[in-house]
């Protein structure tokens, strides 16, 4: 039965209850805050003489922000500001919002991607979820009875407080390593926000302590190992995980082919604080220019299908942002959203005919000195031949150019083609001329100003008129 536009108050209450049951888990104050965290914040603030500190909370922790604010305000002589609405993802440090109140430091609460910031010093307060170490011990012993299997333990931020116990509960195991989180500059991240101090986990078994969520999925794509296990402390289960499905890779390589066919690429700025985001944007622009493609920079805050649908002339998007973002797997967008690594695979000739064993989700690894960085050789660019699109079946012309002539030819290629007498039709440059709708016309000064009158009040299902009567 089709639902009517009008709903009674009882129906609205039922709908509210239904929505509330589907909300995500809300951590308690004990899982977020403690006397130990208060002392750690107090020491950090006083030692660095910070005076204006922003407190960044995700939506799930906003209800506890006032209590934490009051305790900090009573313990430290400084000004504190609560940041409730982040510019991008809640796991990313929002230096932009903190700059609005001239903060000189920031304390981040909850799940974090630990992306390196460019300006503000940051202190991370992770959640502290309960974990039964005896159950963890028994599950590991049952799954690996020999006792000498090479194991590496990765833990989610909410269980990182038990890092020392992961090894302490299994003292007889000599082939056991625990990954460290790069919470400060003393630890260099190697796999997203985790570090193994240069150790290669290629032939080791990896165990992730946490849930089968986006964090684990991204980590499993970045680490090449023998096999993956997930220990879920909430369900008290240890199971084999196979996240690297062939269907996922086929879909991503299809998007790589879409990028090769694209004439215009939209570069979405998903961060304005992570180190190297401007360098990554310039690199993508350079790769696109050398491939004969146009680019457009887009900054719209938190992205959604409605916002990106406004850019109808863009063939595909690439997001420069947090590696923990799950928007790449969304099928709601009208055009595919690629990672920076997939653009490298599509446009960088150094990756031609190369299938990587692992996936790069952190754009900083693609910059110079990064482990996935591959510089284009100007001499090899002359050898790039035309290829055939696997999507349309048409021949794609090679646009790669030699070093010194690359910039000049890319800017004047359209003039050279027209001077040669060739009839060209560039959909990108002519898109705004061919479209029938070109935006809202303000028509300033062409109409008489309208008289301002009082409108209706209330909600759409029951407006109130001037006499106060309800009209449904």
Structure overview:
The chain is of the alpha/beta class and 472 residues long. The protein is built from 15 helices and 20 strands. Strands 6-5-9-10-11 form a 5-stranded mixed β-sheet. α7 links the parallel β5 (151-155) and β6. Mean pLDDT is 82; it is low at 1-22 and 402-425.
Radius of gyration: 27 Å
Instruction: Report the sheet-strand fraction.
Output: 15-25%
The counted number of beta strands is: 20
Structural class: alpha/beta
Helix content: 25-40%
Quote the distance from N terminus to C terminus. 21 Å
Shape: globular
Could you tell me the mean pLDDT?
Answer: 82
Strand order of the largest sheet: 6-5-9-10-11
Uncertain runs are 1-22, 402-425
Could you give a short description of this structure?
With 472 residues, the protein is α/β, with parallel strands linked by helices. It has helices at residues 9-21, 29-32, 35-48, 65-75, 95-99, 133-143, 163-168, 214-222, 246-261, 277-290, 305-308, 340-347, 378-381, 403-419, 431-434, and strands at residues 52-56, 79-83, 105-109, 122-125, 151-155, 176-178, 180-181, 194-195, 205-209, 227-232, 237-241, 264-269, 294-298, 316-320, 337-338, 387-388, 395-396, 457-459, 462-464, 470-471.
Notable features of this structure?
five-stranded mixed β-sheet, disordered N terminus, single chain, four-stranded parallel β-sheet, alpha/beta, 30% helix, 16% strand, 15 helices, 472 residues
